[in-house]
Amino acid sequence: MEQKVANIAGAKASSDARIEKMSEIHRFSHAELDSLKILYPGGANDLRLKVFRDLRTRVYASAPGKNFTCMVTSVVPDGGCTYVVNNLAAAIALDKTRTSLVVDCNFYAPSADSLIVTDTDVGLTDYLDSADMGVESIVYASGIPRVRVIPAGGNTEGATERLSSMRMHAFLDELKTRYSDRYILIDAPAVGEYAADTRIMASLCDFVLLVVPYGKVTEAQIRSAVDAIGEKRLVGMVFNHM
Fold first, then answer.
1. Does an H or E element contain 240, and which?
2. What is the DSSP letter of 112?
3. Residue 177: how many CB atoms within 10 A of its CB?
4. Residue 189 in contact with residue 82, Cβ under 8 Å?
5. What does the pLDDT average to over 48-60?
6. How would you class 200 by CB atoms within 10 Å of its CB: exposed for 0-12, middle for 13-18, buried for 19 or more?
7. Whole-angstrom Cα distance, residue 41 to residue 49?
8. CA 35 from chain center: how many Å?
9. InterPro entries of this UniProt entry (predicted)?
10. Cβ atoms within 10 A of the Cβ of 111, count?
11. What long-range pairs does 134-140 form, CB within 8 A, spacing at least 24?
């Protein structure tokens, strides 16, 4: 009997911890959002808000009436991929009937931890390495209402093998089907440096946004990136000057 009570108490504690992790326990202040270069209504950068609302509308048009999994990659590293992912996620979440989920698949330069407002003990790589771990164990609250985050995780070696695994396939399927109002944005490594990983991820997603850092890449690099992704998967290009 005592053991049963202890098990119930342990399960409740675990459930309470998950509720705390997923709740809106801290919202970023306007100063914090400005520091992270993330849009919000009433902010000083009205152009950013307008641009990402327009991008949101264009992406919605590619999957009318349903949610989607959209991979975002850049032509070269530090091209602004994470900036686009974070702001598109925030733009989607402005609609109180929708939520967005940022999944950090850039194992070479993970960045999603900057959005998370709780301690992170496990992430995507931990989930992919453990058949006993559920998706709910790696989803965290962000400082932006209705935006959730899955960080890259601990051991980030062997990215290509993990991304091409059957568990990764099942993972993305579950994310998309579990909540019909949740839009999944994949922060992927730069296609110019990690073409193999990008091709794998592109094949698993509904479509791809390519970020082009303005004035920092050649036309040949852009064409090579488009070829690696595949024109049928490419939903558009975002020219970034941030």
1. strand 234-240
2. G
3. 10
4. no
5. 95
6. buried
7. 7
8. 19
9. Bact_polysacc_biosynth/exp, Wzc-like_C
10. 17
11. 135/171, 135/174, 135/175, 135/178, 136/18, 137/18, 139/21, 139/22, 139/101, 140/21, 140/22, 140/116
* Total-model pTM: 0.88
Q: Which two tokens stand for residue 103?
A: 């999944």
Q: Beta partners for 114?
A: none
CA dist., res. 95 & res. 97, Å (int):
5
pLDDT tens readout for residues 57-96: 999 999 998 999 999 999 999 999 999 999 999 999 999 9
Encoded tokens for 102: 């940022």
Q: Are 68 and 183 in contact (CB under 8 A)?
A: yes
Side chain identity at 78, as an amino acid letter?
Answer: D
Helix and strand counts by DSSP (H, E) for the chain: 9, 7
| Residue in 41, 38, 23, 211 with CA at minimum distance from that of residue 118 | 23
Residue with tokens 């006993």: 132
Round to whole Å and give the CA distance between 242 and 227.
25
Q: In sequence order, what E strands does 33-127 have? A: 69-74, 99-104
Cα–Cα distances in angstroms (integers) from residue 126 to residues 10, 103, 199, in the given order: 22, 13, 22
| SS3 (DSSP) at 52 | helix
Contacts 24+ apart (CB under 8 A), 54-62: 55/88, 55/91, 55/236, 55/238, 56/88, 56/91, 56/92, 58/235, 58/236, 59/88, 59/207, 59/209, 59/235, 59/236, 62/206, 62/207, 62/235
169 CB-near residues (< 8 Å, 6+ apart):
204
pLDDT in tens, 156-192: 787 788 888 999 999 999 999 988 899 999 999 999 8
Q: Tell me, what's the pLDDT at 2?
A: 42
Contact assessment for residue 213 and residue 117, using Cβ atoms and an 8 Å cutoff: no
